[in-house]
Amino acid sequence: MTRKPAPAARIVGWLSSGILQAVLLLVGVLWLIPTLGLFVSSLRTPVDISDSGWWTVFTHPSQITLSDYINLFHDQGMMQSLVNTVLITVPATLGVVVLASLAAYAFAWIDFPGRDWLFVAVIGLLVVPVQVALIPVAKMYKYTHLFGSITGVVLFHIGFGLPFAIFLLRNFFAGIPRELLEAARMEGGSEWVIFRKVIVPLGMPAIASLTIFQFLWVWNDMLVALVFSDTNTQPLTVELQGQMRQFGSNIDILAPGAFLSLVIPLIVFFSFQRYFVQGLMAGSMKG
Amino acid sequence: MTDPLDTPAAAAAGAGESADPPAPGRLPPADRPTGRRRRSALHIPVRVRFGFLAPSVLVLLAIIGWPILFSVWLSLHNADGSSWVGLHNYVSIFTDPATLTALKNNLIWLATAPTLACALGLIFAVLSERIRWATAFKVVIFMPMAISFLAAGVIFELVYQADPSIGVANAVMVEIHDTFAPSSKYPAAEPRSTLDYSQSKAGYTSPTEYTPGSVATVPLTGYSVLDLPKSAVQAAPAAAVPGEITGTVWLDLVYGGGGTPGHIDPGKKGTPGITVEALSGTKVAARATAGSDGTFALHGLSPGTRYRLALPASDFAQPYAGVSWLGPDLVTPAIIVAYLWIWAGFAMVLIAAGLSGIPRELQEAAKVDGASDFQIFRKITVPLLAPVLLVVLVTLAINVLKIFDLVYIISPGSTLSVANVLAVQMWSVSFGGAQNQGLGSAIGVFLYLLVLPAMYVNIRRIRRERRES
């Protein structure tokens, strides 16, 4: 039964759809403005920034300059912290992905006594706030001379990344058809071969989601690095945070620095959006 | 997104039952008769089983498991861990003024941020279903999730800059304010003091009384020709008009010197924009605005009545400077707005996924029965989404309890104590100078206790799901 709406109703429909689109467009613009402000500010000289709003650039495009970025790239401390961010993020991401894949396979497909209880314990660790571990781990790092080292920061990130990673991967791995694993076992494949040849290739979507998440978390972290790194090993976030207290006078380094620190996550986000959203909803995959 | 466990963990742990979005590339869940699998698993040597699990278990024990116990031990000791103080540190959380402020702010956050983010997410998810560019819209809203709190902090610090010519929030405030209540261009202007205008909060009132048909002169001082708009021209004496009070408002100074005070000399310019009122007693009988040569004409007066001239306070209003966003009064709401900017997208994506799982038939049926869109939303969509909404709320609640970066970065040093939250206070007392590891540990353990109910909910949910499967 299809009824054609009356002309009046159709006009109301168009109107309300137009209003709806306008409202959502406004919301979208509102959401973009803050980031746009940072980006435009990073393209202006400090004098311009303290003189007038970034929006004046649209009427005076001659203000645009790359000088802030050139200064940033000549800033020894900033560049070192950018390198540190990479040195922390890459191993912390790889570490979590590798360790969690192994553990998730064991939780999903290898039987051992107390397995379910151990898995519940891992889930229990999901919500543990980092604050509860900062002081003890700092003490331990001082004792083992890991304090201030990149290894220490990486290790902490791996530890706090594992519960979610294991949870996510185990649920996905458990969904891999049993026949595939049994066939491989029948053919005499060792657990290691099964893991490499069956689990990892089939589990790729979940592994990809996890990689992106872990990468973003570690790249964007400030608190962990604030506690465990020192001036030589601190990442971009901590270095920039140090400049925040004199916001006005450091804006020429803060704006391009902050933009630099957010552009890489944004590239990752836009390139792997599908995995990002999938990972977010991974819980829907029942184990 | 400092804390690796913040969002997706809890979301994933909970999104289960209801969200159930179709995950592309997802494999069908195995129906697992455990008996058979156990048999096939029997051949695995203990060494191998151990090899898969051991690295993770060791790291978890070293970084999370053991530190929790150690934190509890430390929280029962004094600042450097040398002597037992019992529950003293936990008592301090509720008695120490700084920690108490932090606790109070955490409660404010908890009461507002998750609900607001959830509400925004719900509205965005439901509304964007009806537009064609929904994907683009969602990407824009969700994008802040990818960037760090530090970058978000810099972004919003810039938005909230107090100077309206730098901070976009205040620029908008000033623009809106000036549209409804324009500020004066000559806040420091005043009638020449020799004229004895009486000054009150309402403005200036002339000592002289005028009758319709007379010509008034209002010489002003206290500002310079540079304050005048480009439209201002040489002041001109007004012509007398029967039934009206006419006159001139001018800048009673000649640029470069000269001229007679109170006299319209060549080189003296009119002051356009000044409002002049005719007062009968205290009642405003007429109102006029000075033109570019300073002349004004007050119409509609009754002949024979005597009026005083008044320059209302709005003529001398100080320019509106906007709002002190990061001042003590607004700093927490301002940071919550930044939080919403980031997390509304998270709520939106999860809710949109839940929305796509709702059977359309119900909504269609309700529509056929004549239900309005809003009724469908309230009576069908929201109740069906309740489980997802709960998951989002719980996730955000955990997240908000642990909030650190945004507060630490956005609130300037001077208001950090006002905007303080527990996670920031924990950092300050244990690493930021005080080095009180007893109190720091107590706050850490307290935060853990606060999020424990959520963990309990998660585990129960997951166990129930596993029993069902």
At a glance:
Chain A has helices at about 5-40, 45-50, 65-75, 75-110, 115-125, 130-145, 150-175, 180-185, 190-200, 205-220, 225-230, 235-245, 245-270, 275-280. Chain A has about 290 residues and is mostly helical.
Structure description:
The complex is a heterodimer of chains A (287) and B (469). Chain A is mainly α and 287 residues long. Chain A has two domains: 7-65; 70-284, MetI-like fold (Orthogonal Bundle), CATH 1.10.3720. Chain A is 75% helix and 0% strand. Chain A is built from 14 helices and no strands. Chain A has helices at residues 7-42, 46-51, 67-73, 76-109, 115-124, 131-144, 150-173, 178-186, 191-202, 204-220, 223-228, 236-243, 247-271, 273-280. In chain A, α3 (67-73) packs across α13 (247-271). The radius of gyration of chain A is 25 Å and the shape is flat. Chain B is α+β, with helices and mostly antiparallel strands and 469 residues long. Chain B has two domains: 7-25 and 61-161 and 325-468, MetI-like (MetI-like fold); 190-316, no CATH class. Chain B is built from 16 helices and nine strands. In chain B, the strands form two sheets. Chain B has a five-stranded antiparallel beta sheet, with no helix packed on it. In chain B, α6 runs antiparallel to α12 (373-401), α6 crosses α15 (422-430) and α7 (134-142) runs antiparallel to α10 (331-356). Chain B is elongated. The two termini of chain B are 33 Å apart. The chains are: A mainly alpha (287), B alpha+beta (469). Chains A and B meet through α1, α2, α4, α5 and α6 of A and α1, α3, α4, α6 and α7 of B.
List keywords for this structure.
heterodimer, A: 287 residues, mainly alpha, MetI-like fold, 2 domains, 14 helices, 75% helix, 0% strand, B: 469 residues, alpha+beta, 5-stranded antiparallel beta sheet, 4-stranded mixed beta sheet, elongated
